[in-house]
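Re: your question about Cholesterol 24-hydroxylase

S., sorry for the slow reply, the queue was backed up all week. Below is exactly what I fed in.
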Amino acid sequence: MISALLLYLLAAGFIAVLAYCLYVLHVHQKYDHIPGPPRDNFLLGHTPSFSRSMQSEGLIHDQLLQWAEDYGPVYRLNSFHYAVIVVHCPEATKKILMSPSYLKDPLVYKQLFNLFGKRFLGNGLITAMDHDIWYRQRRIMDPAFSSSYLRSLMGTFNEMSERLMDKLDEVATQKTPTEMLKLVNCVTLDVICKVAFGVDLNFLTQTESPFQRAVELCLQGMVMYLRDPFCRLFPKNWKIIEEIKEATELLRRTGEEWIEKRKRAAENGEDVPQDILTQILKTADEEKVTSSKDHEQMLDNFVTFFIAGQETTANQLSFAIMELGRNPEIYKRAKAEVDEVLGTKRDISFEDLGKFSYLSQVLKETLRLYPTAPGTNRWLHEDMVINGLKVPAGCSIAFSSYVSQRLDKFFKDPLKFDPERFDASAPKPYFCYFPFALGPRICLGQVFSQMEAKVVLAKLLQRFEFSLVPGQSFDIKDTGTLRPKSGVICTIKPSS
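Result:
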C-alpha cells in the first residue's frame, strides 16, 4: 500500500515537473524571436547572472546597459516561466508610461507587499496596482504636495539645512575628513520626519539611529527579495534576513505610534499641520475605513513616504557633491551663481530657488548619470509592436532610466558630467530621461525633493569649500536605490 502511494506521488511529481518544463519551453518559444543574451539555464533563465552580480557587489545596471548596446532597444530576459522585455525605445516609453492602461507589473510589485513574510509597502502609493485604488490615494495626497503647501515648507528646509551647516562648522574646525552621504542622509531624514509626520528627531546629534539602519536594511532586503529567489535557502543569509524583518517591523510600529498620536491630537481639537500624515488619516476618513485591513494600508503609506521621502534625495545630493568635487570648473560656476543669488543672507526664499538655473542643471545632470530610483516595470496586457518587433501580451516591460540616460544615441559622450545638456536652449530629451518615472504614476514628491536638494546644496556652496579625499572609489552601490559606494569622503573648510 505504501509502495503504491509512493509510486503515485513520484509519478504525479514527475508529471508536474514535466508540465512545468513544457510551459517554460512554451514561454521561450513565445518570446525567443526577440533578441537577448543567452540564458544561463533552461529553467532559471538569466537569474544566475543577477545572483552573481549581487554576490560580487557588481552593478547589474551596467550589465543591462551592456546588453542594451549588444541587443538593441528591445531585448528579452527570462526568469523561470517569466519573460521580461527591456525597452529603450522613446516611442514605446511614451506610449506605455504615459497611459493609465498599462498597470504596474504585479509579479514585481506584489513581492514588495511583504518582505520575507513581513508586510512592507503593502498597497501603498508606489505598489498599488489597481488604478482606482491608486488614484483615490493619489487624489487625497495631492494637497500635501501642492505649490502653496510646498512654499510653506521653506522655513523647515532652511532650518534643517542650518543644522547641517552647524555640523560642518564642527567638521571644518576639527580638520578631519567626513562622509557626506551620512550627513545629508541625516538632513533629509530630519526633513521628512518633520514635514511629513510632524516629528523632530535631529539625527545629526545621534551617533546611532535605528531608523537610518532600518531604511538601509529594508532597501537591501528589497534587492535580495526581488533578484535572488534562493537567498532564503542559504544559512549565511539567515541573520541578515532576520534583521531585515525586524527593521520592517520597527518602521511599521513607529508609523502606528505616530498615527495614533496624530489621531488623538485631532480628536482633542488641537491644530494639526496639513502634512502627509494628516492626508493619510484623511484618506481613511474619506474612504470611511475602520477595518484592520485599512489600518494596515495607512501604515503602508507611512513606510512608503518614510523611505522614499529621504533616501533618494540624500543619494542625489551625495552624487552631486561627488561630481562637483571631480569637476572644478562646474563647481566654480555653481558656487558663483549661488553667491550672486544669495550674497550673505542665510535664509533661502522660494523665489531664490527659481534663480538657481545652473544649480538646477547640475541636479538634473546628476539624476541623468545617477538616477537614484533606476527603473520601473509595467505589465503588457495586449500584443504590441515595439521597434518593429511583435511583443506578445502577458509579459513584463522594464524601463531602465539608468540605461536610457547612459546610451550614446540619446546623450552624446554619456559618461561625461555636463550640466549644459539641460540648459534652457539645449534640445529636450525625448522620453529617454525619466529619473522620476513618467505619466500618471510619476513620483508625487519630485518637486519637494528638488526644492530640498537646492536648499541644501546652495547653503553648502555658499558657506563651505569642499574637496574629495584622494584615492576613494567613485563606484555606485546598488541598494535598491543607487548611492555612492565610498560615501563621498570630503575635507571641509569655511568659504574664504
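The two ends are 90 Å apart (CA to CA). The chain has one domain: 32-494.

Happy to talk it through on Thursday.
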